[in-house]
């Protein structure tokens, strides 16, 4: 029987998008059930199985009650699988990561979890998870983009069943631009909405001049959460990749990316970028956006946009735009991916039962579509589209063509991301130029990659 490795792993917080959604219409095809979950009648296992499901707020909280929707999912699952008891425990984004660390170290990890690649792939690399290859049929594999499958696998082993996705982009307060007569400065007349760095600067300048009570753009560097927003922002402003295509080393430390970071630093001084960025978190910036005090926010997505429907403190219409690039070329958008994993707690019956729960959540003819909509995200399956009657979701579907290689799959990623924000802070407080900060980050990150590769060979 396989047991967990002891000792608290160095698991790092990753901003997971809290996925709440206002009710929307749907015209999507119903997801088809995979081979792992063909049962449509109660199973006849001789002995009842009890499993524990730990879940971050991956679904909309019904009636303000966190976990209420998940309980409905479990009740529906039990109608078809009465011999499987599912114990639900909801995690918070603040305390959840440490609770998982302690559970893993004490061999009390849950059986199944809904999470994101940042943690799941790290667990997979540490041999803590049960492979899900038997659940990924050819139909599923051919219907999920390579960028998303990369975030679900370690080597040739699938450790996360991909369910919902969304491109990380800019969130824009469209109402502000309408009020100042500058809507024409946004690339909304272009089907792909791509725009250049110069066009972006003009839009920010217009906000500064015509809406002095609104901060043109956001930035943050206080904690590890939301790092995907800042790295994609700088990567696109500098037309640079974050890693080389083979993930062998960092590639963002280019002269152009350094100049982009220098522009952000100067932008704070010029009041084009929020002041005190070095001490702000991604959540702080999103709060400013919700208050109508920020025109353009980073780290946005259809999922966060859905959550914000009920959290806005000011009335405004928010829209999605891709990150600008130097020459208006196609941007590189990092894909958010949510999915489920099974811990290998040494009990084959619990592993099998956990897989049945995953298959039900992802592929049940009725609940599969419901669950997708409840996340506020897009389907990880290319064939399942049109879930929402909303032009911003229609654009988000199109923006999936800009998906780039996800940094989360790099060897040593859990350590690499700890070096990112400290270097941004050094630049923001004037202790390093943009290029110096990115070079320092690259040096440390490359050492982490080398170390991780060496450990993997042991």
Automatic annotation (TrEMBL):
User: What residue range is the signal peptide?
Assistant: 1-22
SUPFAM superfamilies found in the cross-reference section: Periplasmic binding protein-like II (SSF53850)
Tell me if Lipoprotein is a UniProt keyword of this record: yes
UniProt KW keywords = Cell membrane, Lipoprotein, Membrane, Palmitate, Signal
Name of the molecule in the record: ABC transporter
Q: Name one Pfam family in it.
A: SBP_bac_1
InterPro entries annotated for this entry? Bact_solute-bd_prot1, SBP
Key word Protein biosynthesis present: no
Q: Which organism is it from?
A: Paenibacillus pini JCM 16418
